[in-house]
Each structure stands twice: as structure tokens, then as C-alpha cells.
Amino acid sequence: MSAILSINALRKTYEGGFEALKNVTLEIERGEILALLGPNGAGKTTLISTICGITTASSGSVKVGGHDIVTEYRAARNMIGLVPQEINLEPFETVWSTVSFSRGLFGKPRNDALLEDILKKLSLWDKRKSKIMELSGGMKRRVLIAKALSHEPQLLFLDEPSAGVDVELRKDMWKIVADLKAQGVTIILTTHYIEEAEAIADRIGVIRRGEILLVEHKDTLMVRLGQKQLEVQLSAPIEDVPEALSGYDLTLAADGHALIYSYDVKQDRTGITGLLNAVAEAGLVLSDVQTRQSSLEEIFVDLVAEDAA
């Protein structure tokens, strides 16, 4: 699969010396969904703004569909749709005029059938004659998506698309994104909702202090960095981990009713069989055994954790 977005050694340094992007190199394949995760100030919005031509890079290069964003900026930007984090719409315009005007800005010929299709897919068709000021926050965010799709982009940026919307609308947004992918649109998503990335992304990128820490397929990432935990539930509580079990990395639950054992799923031997035998030899009686996998949120927190020093 060919790359629709190629970023090479991209840097952005502001006046005063602050380096918002540090040697970012990244390729995005056509038709995939990439979730870009990072704490506040990590450089997510700066990266998107640079690709979209809102911010000028200090050095490096970006190509969209093979078009350089500087020397072939018109061709590059025609391929890009951007849903910004902030809602900035003309309050007295109608939904229809807002979306149709956005299509015209890109020099596209009038296509009412296309706009009707977009509005219907975003559940905005019944609101087409409504003024923006009459819409809820969630509906306004849908209008931003409709605007971004109006000129038929091949690459769509969603900067915190579900910020400020309730859980139901957020899940609707996930379905919209999945439908867009099915239509062949490539999507780059920034989000603070880790479950959002876990639900819809193909690959996960993690950025911190302007540097890309990793970009990896979601499932591969969770296997490679994820830990599993075995919870050994006891029929009677204990006060301390028995000395006979000191060779295992065990944590005693607060109520004393369970021993928690962390292990790496990549290892040939997990040590579980030996642990269960050792528990029985220590005279403890099991009532149940459960396992759980690290969530993407836990992996993310570990990756972006600040150094203790």
C-alpha cells in the first residue's frame, strides 16, 4: 500500500528557541486510520497545522499524495480536509450555506447531490436550513466535518473531534470515521480519549515534546508493550505474601483476598504453573483465578511518563 503522507525530518522552532517539532519522520498509508496520542503541548496540533499549511516548518519536508506542501501547495491542500479542535463557524449562516461555501473555496464545481449525501451521513440533513447558532455543540462539530469533506479530500485530519461531546455522540463519531475509511479516506486523528484510539485506529502514534516515540499497529503495540496480570483469589485473606512466594513478583490486594502476578506474554515461560504450585505448597487455598491485559491507556501513560529526575 502506497503512502499518501510522507514527512521527512520535519522541525518547527519558534522565536525564542522553543522547538515544537523535532526531526519528525513519518509515513501514512492510504486508507488507514492513525491515532496520534500525546499529552498537552506534545506537538500534535503543531504537526497537523504544519502539514495543512497553517504553520510554516523550520526545516524538513512534507508530501501529500506526492505533492510537496510548499512548492505544490495548491495540489497538496486540495487533498486535505481539516476538522480543527476549536469550533469557529459563522453563527448566522445556515448549515447548507456553510458547507457549500467551503466547497467553493477549493474551486470545486457545484454538486448539491454530494453535499446532500454528506449531510445525511452526518445526520445533518434535517438541520440544513438551521443557522449555526441554533445547533448544539455536537451538531456544530458535525458541521466542521461536513465542511472538511465538502471538497472530497483524500486525507482527513481530525484534531480532537469528540472533545466536549457526550458519550453517545462520541460513539456516533466513531461510526462516521469508520464509514469514511470504508469510502477510502485516510484519517489522522488526535485525541485525549484513549478508548477512542483503541476503538477505531489501525495504527497508534505517540508523540512527546515534539518527538515521535513510536508508530505501530495497535494490536502489535499492545502485545509488545502490554503486560498481563494473573489474579489469584484466595478463599481466606492473608496479611502478607508468604516467604515461600518471595521469588515471584507478587502484589497483595488491599483486602488480602488476592495475589496479583504480572507477567510478559512474549516470554516462552510465564511462570504461572510454578506460581500456582508454589501457592498450593504454601498452604493457601484458591477460590478463583482471573487474567487481565494492560489497556492502551496504561501503555500510553508508561510511554509518556516524565523522568523522575
Automatic annotation (TrEMBL):
CDD domains: ABC_DR_subfamily_A. Keywords: ATP-binding, Nucleotide-binding, Transport. SUPFAM superfamilies: P-loop containing nucleoside triphosphate hydrolases. InterPro entries: AAA+_ATPase (IPR003593), ABC_transporter-like_ATP-bd (IPR003439), ABC_transporter-like_CS (IPR017871), ABC_transporter_ATP-binding (IPR050763), P-loop_NTPase (IPR027417). Pfam families: ABC_tran (PF00005). Residues 5-234 form the ABC transporter domain. It comes from the Bacteria. GO terms for molecular function: ATP binding; ATP hydrolysis activity. This is ABC-2 type transport system ATP-binding protein. It comes from Epibacterium ulvae. The lineage of its organism: Bacteria, Pseudomonadati, Pseudomonadota, Alphaproteobacteria, Rhodobacterales.
